[in-house]
Amino acid sequence: MPKKLSIFIKLIYALCLTGLISVAVLLILTLIPGFGSFKVLVVLSGSMEPTIKTGSIIIIKAAPDYKIDDIITFSQNPTDKRDISTTHRIVGIENNGFQTKGDANNAPDGSIITKNQVQGKVIIKIPYLGYGVEAARQPAGFAAIVIIPAAIIIAGEVKKIVVEVNKTKLKKDNQQELPK
Q1: Pick from 93, 126, 111: which is nearest to 26 by CA?
Q2: Is residue 124 classed as helix, strand or coil in its secondary structure?
Q3: What's the pLDDT tens digit per position in 55-88?
């Protein structure tokens, strides 16, 4: 095999492996309820643009207290497991909770957010990576992002095993043919 083609194949293999591991880790982290005191979420709307881009991954962590300008994630109905989380900035503090607003919105949110509703404060945001995680949750995306790279990796490993088995077999055959 020409050297340039061999390097190209190794590069594709490394990219597939890196991508597969990255998406798998992020997918797992977004599916489990919380990773220690951290939670990984995918941003699905543009209400916090340009601060947090749609399709970003955010990592939130519960904090003992929250202040104005903190970006928090909260639930409208914390007891409902199907409730979709919202991530907005604290623009005011009331006796009974927080007034929040999306950076892209013209007005503050309509209701006060209580401390019970707050899941945590955004500590890390990674733009656009959430698109890959969301795609991996769909059947076609899962095939493109997980199954195809995994098949490429498995095929590469099977090829390596076959080559090694053939080398061992050839070596064994050569040793048996030597005169005694």
Answers
A1: 126
A2: strand
A3: 999 999 999 999 999 999 999 877 777 778 999 9
What b/e readout covers 99-125, taking b as 16+ CB neighbours within 10 angstroms? bbbbeeeeeebeebbeeebbbbbbeeb
Q: Are 31 and 136 in contact (CB under 8 A)?
A: no
| pLDDT of res. 23 | 73
- Give the E-state strand segments of 38-147 in sequence order: 38-42, 57-61, 71-75, 85-94, 97-101, 118-126
Which domains are present in the chain?
25-135 (2.10.109.10)
Half-sphere exposure in the Cβ direction for 87 (13 Å, CA): 28
> 103 pLDDT band (50/70/90 cuts)?
very high
Record the pTM: 0.66
